[in-house]
Amino acid sequence: MRELQEEILKSKACPRLIRYCQSVACVKRAMYREQEYWGKAVLSFGDPQAELLVVGLAPAAHGGNRTGRMFTGDRSGDFLFRGLYEAGFANQPTSSNRNDGLKLRNCYITAAVRWAPPQNKPTPEEIRRCLPFLQRELELLKEVKVVLALGRVAFDAYLRIARAQAALPPRSEMPFHHGATYELPAPLPRLLCSYHPSQHNTQTGRLTPAMFQHVLRKARDHLDAGTIRLN
């Protein structure tokens, strides 16, 4: 995994996104002007023996692109980590910087795209260029039993990888909606869906803490049905 992370940091797979991340790191948001931005590909993190894999969209320009850790330093992360904490998958409910003591329990977090995109909208080509990183992570994370896709982009990206490994139903029979659960053919893990914890979704009530906990309870129940390991 460390070799893959180093490869991602050196990658030039998405030139437009790389330029954007570097630009944001130079022209900082006023409230963070005294901070040094990460300004490059943001790496996945968590428990390498995790049974729950959470797949997001991409780092935020002033979140992960600033702090250097997925879902760290923005409102989406505030929502996500409080939910993971309440479900027992994190040791604390907050994630402010890479040295804040956060540890994930039986959980690993990654994203479909590794650089922050303008307006949080990567192009289809940029998503395609990042897919090999996610595919290789899935190969290395050998204990995963549940994949939780946060949003349609993450859902579609994961399904593209899954379809190369097993025969799946037609896409029309696997719609994305919050709370959807798909039992995929072996050796693929169960796939759960949640709306992305973006500010737009959480502030409008499209995604509430109760709705997110409902999905996390589904993950917990599935893991509890077998032998799980929680530190």
The main β sheet shows up as: 6 strands, mixed
**Annotated CATH architecture:** 3-Layer(aba) Sandwich
- Tell me the helix content: 25-40%
Shape: globular
CATH superfamily membership, which one?
Answer: Uracil-DNA glycosylase-like domain
- Give the domain tally: 1
Please report the total strand number as a whole number.
6
How far the N terminus sits from the C terminus, by CA atoms, comes to: 21 Å
Q: What pattern of helices and strands is seen along the backbone? A: HHEEHHEHEHEEHH
Instruction: Indicate the CATH class.
Output: Alpha Beta
Low-pLDDT windows of residues: 227-231
Strand fraction equals 5-15%
Nearest-integer average pLDDT: 95
CATH topology category name: Uracil-DNA Glycosylase, subunit E
C-alpha-based Rg, rounded: 17 Å
Characteristics of this structure?
single chain; 231 residues; alpha/beta; Uracil-DNA Glycosylase, subunit E; six-stranded mixed beta sheet; 8 helices; 6 strands
Layout of helices and strands, plus pairs?
Blueprint: H1 2-10, H2 15-26, E1 45-46, E2 52-56, H3 64-67, H4 75-86, E3 107-111, H5 124-140, E4 146-150, H6 152-163, E5 181-182, E6 190-194, H7 199-203, H8 209-224
Parallel strand pairs: 2-3, 2-4, 4-6
Antiparallel strand pairs: 1-3, 5-6
Helix pairs in contact: 4-8
